[in-house]
Amino acid sequence: VQLQASGGGLVQTGGSLRLSCTASRRTNSNNGMGWFRQAPGKEREFVAAISWNGDNTLYTASVKGRFTISRDRAKNTVYLQMDRLIPDDTAVYYCAVSRSSSSTSEAGRYAYWGQGTQVTVSS
């Protein structure tokens, strides 16, 4: 399974970006999906996750209320709408497909990872 992430870029504080991640085949249709990020010099961290049918979502505290994860199973695609961006959101963002159907924040539960897309928020 290959995951292709897109939508990153440079934006000013307070701006918005929408990340997309499409899987190469329908392996992920019954699996949870998630977004992680890694800033320079920092560990990779969980951002958001969504269950296989979209009914359950999880967010890390720092993005709750600003980011929204969603998915289109027919398109094998997961989205991350990021609003009110701040410089601390600057990182490479990775999408991933979970081994289970639920939403999870544990990186070890994800089987497939995308190549990452850079998000830079200027102050």
Integer-rounded radius of gyration: 13 Å
Largest sheet: 7 strands, mixed
The pLDDT mean sits at: 94
**Inertia-based shape:** globular
Number of helical elements: 0
Gap from first CA to last CA: 37 Å
What is the number of strand segments?
Answer: 11
Report the β-strand fraction as a percent range: over 45%
Order of helices and strands: EEEEEEEEEEE
Percentage of residues assigned to helices: under 10%
Assembly category:
single chain
Q: Structural class of the secondary elements?
A: mainly beta
Flag low-confidence runs: none
Describe the structure in your own words.
With 123 residues, the chain is an all-beta fold. 0% of the residues lie in helices and 49% in strands. The protein contains no helices and eleven strands. It has strands spanning 3-6, 9-12, 17-23, 33-38, 45-50, 57-59, 67-72, 77-82, 91-98, 110-113, 117-122. It is globular, with a radius of gyration of 13 Å. The protein starts with a strand and ends with a strand.
